[in-house]
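Hello, quick one for you while I still have it in my head. Could you read through the record and tell me how the tokens relate to the sequence? No rush at all, and the record is pasted right below.
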Amino acid sequence: MQPRLKLVLATLFVVFTLSVSARSRAADAPDQGKADVYVAETSMLGSTKLDAGSYEVKADAGNATFAPDNGRVVAKVSIQWKDETGKSASSNVEVTDGKIVAIHFKGKSRYAAISQ
């Protein structure tokens, strides 16, 4: 095999290995999530009133943001990650007494509890 071909193959192997590794780490990150959820009725999220409708939720280690279809963030709250009893079957928000208290992400074994 020619030296240049060996170099090209070795480079491709390294790039492929690194990209697979990066994707698996991102997919396994337990304390982050992104989902489209539907808020069925006007609800409070921290001190912000959210109208009923569809929202894109993004959560990281300590905060979650809600953005409607226009992409502009309308609410940001502090969260704490907690363990589920199993993996969530769907992405949704949990509402108690008119307040959003948790965000569940499909396929995740942890959920984001809203810090009150």
